[in-house]
């Protein structure tokens, strides 16, 4: 379990352990020093995201982009704090943009009794953030040589993975967790768990060298094969 403030994944790419290894954010740095932050953790994690900048010799003024994989409070909870400190708006897939701007997570899976119960008893809320740009599937965002948006809906309507083209680091988002072992996210927290199962297959169609999970530690050796085997065991492929 990492206690480092940042974990190097590739040259100029880092994971930020926000709640140990269980909840992660990420940093990318361009050759000219510009920094992009991806996912800000829960509400109390905002200052930890900012503190991570110092560990790589950067400052809030170096941050030029803020991104989210999706609009859930364990990823967007610290977003408003980071936005205030850096003076930047957020970018995310267009299907989750309205939720981030409203500070309201997408609906839970109504096909599940627990999903309906969780939505009524534990609404998914966080401090709203300004959305400055929205993305579509396949779009390449000009981040450190190119960050490809991979739309994988189901966990939320606009859930997206991000593939860093120069290094082959794939930020998977919440389609699959790697907490002790590969596993699904909590079904009741998804908008459509069956769709999540289907779109997770995209993670074996991509070419990458490291699978970096928003929940859990990264896979550095044959990550695509590990994910393929997991999906096979689950009867998805």
UniProtKB/TrEMBL annotation:
Database matches in InterPro entries: Metallo-B-lactamas, NDM-1-like, RibonucZ/Hydroxyglut_hydro
Keyword annotations from UniProtKB, A to Z: Hydrolase
Gene3D superfamilies in the cross-refs: Ribonuclease Z/Hydroxyacylglutathione hydrolase-like (3.60.15.10)
Residues in Metallo-beta-lactamase domain copies: 22-215
A GO term for molecular function: hydrolase activity
Domain of life: Bacteria
Lipid metabolism as UniProt keyword: no
Annotated protein name in UniProt: MBL fold metallo-hydrolase
């Amino acid at each position: 379990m990492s206690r480092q403030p940042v974990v190097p994944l590739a040259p100029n790419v880092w994971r930020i352990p926000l709640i140990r290894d269980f909840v992660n954010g990420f940093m990318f740095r361009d050759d000219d020093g510009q920094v992009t932050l991806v996912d800000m953790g829960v509400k109390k994690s905002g200052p930890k995201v900012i503190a991570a900048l110092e560990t790589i010799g950067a400052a809030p003024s170096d941050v030029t982009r803020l991104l989210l994989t999706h609009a859930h409070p364990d990823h967007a909870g610290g977003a408003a704090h980071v936005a205030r400190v850096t003076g930047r708006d957020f970018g995310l897939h267009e299907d989750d943009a309205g939720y981030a701007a409203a500070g309201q997570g997408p609906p839970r899976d109504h096909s599940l009794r627990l999903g309906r119960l969780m939505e009524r008893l534990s609404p998914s809320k966080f401090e709203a953030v300004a959305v400055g740009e929205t993305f579509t599937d396949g779009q390449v965002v000009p981040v450190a040589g190119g960050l490809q948006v991979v739309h994988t809906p189901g966990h939320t309507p606009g859930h997206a993975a991000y593939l860093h083209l120069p290094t082959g680091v794939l930020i998977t988002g919440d389609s699959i967790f790697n907490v002790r072992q590969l596993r699904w996210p909590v079904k009741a927290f998804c908008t459509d768990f069956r769709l999540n199962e289907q779109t997770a297959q995209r993670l074996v169609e991509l070419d990458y060298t490291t699978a970096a999970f928003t929940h859990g530690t990264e896979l550095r050796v044959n990550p695509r094969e590990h994910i393929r085997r997991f999906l096979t065991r689950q009867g998805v492929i």
